[in-house]
Amino acid sequence: MAAIGDRGTVTEASGFDAEADCQKLREAMKGAGTNEATITEVLAHRTIAQRQRIKEAYKQTVGKDLADDLSSELSGNFKSVVLGLLMLAPVYDAYELRNAMKGAGTEEACLIEILASRSNAEVKTICSVYKNEYGKDLESAVCGDTSGMFQRVLVSLLSVSKPKHTAEIYEAGEARWGTDEVKFLTVLCVRNRHHLLRVFDEYQKISGKDIEESIKREMSGSLEDVFLAIVKCLRNKSAFFAERLYKSMKGLGTTDTVLIRTMVSRAEIDMLDIKAQFQKMYGKSLYSFIKGDTSGDYRKILLELCGGE
């Protein structure tokens, strides 16, 4: 029943009673109109494990699926947040990946974010959930939707169970990196954090450049994005998410898909660290950014997931 991580804003509700919560949600959906405030109050303050218990209780007492009922009552971004909160973490990741590849065009940002930031064990689970839910291998879905070197990087992030050898990235004291993207790929996809952080330091010593600078100089587009994401996640995952949140809200318009996915998926893992990083990097609180950039019930539920100012 506990939270997935210990640095989240969403923690286990004490005195938890799945049946009582289930009753509250039923009431919130009864009659004309929906009481969004109650839905927020219940779902934003329970862990994923507790929400699963509420779903079970709902199924037993109402005989219907809670997600289906909420889906027909709600709309827009608020609905997306609520439905995301009801899913187990790997199920939500698989669902987001599937949506990113559905229809025309691909949301590369989603593929990059999820595959670069999840651990090997998490990726493995996402792959099996994807196959169960959608009857297709995640790897073949990704291959059908991407191409070239970018595709190769994503596939190697997916093939976590296969052994990899590390290519030497500096030979005879001369960093030959960048001239050969394949070497880059072999090294970065090893995903042994301590080893890689040492490699980055060594790279800096030899080339006099930070690895991120080299990536920006040598690459472009989605390939640049995925390599930068891998490096950033290894160095400081909460800073990676803080930056994504900032970019999703900065300037005109809001990239709601990124904002929702980050707030839902990190709420009970490391939202406290992401908030601290956000403040440190941008001199403003994440709370104030969300407040200024969103409205209505959507704003309210995101602010609850964010946890106080």
UniProtKB/TrEMBL annotation:
Annotated PROSITE patterns: ANNEXIN_1, ANNEXIN_2
Topology with respect to the bilayer: Peripheral membrane protein
Record InterPro entries: Annexin, Annexin_repeat, Annexin_repeat_CS, Annexin_sf, ANX4
Gene3D superfamilies given in the database record: Annexin
Domain of life assignment: Eukaryota
Gene Ontology, cellular component aspect: nucleus; plasma membrane; zymogen granule membrane
Subcellular location field: Zymogen granule membrane
GO molecular function, one term: phosphatidylserine binding
Record protein name field: Annexin
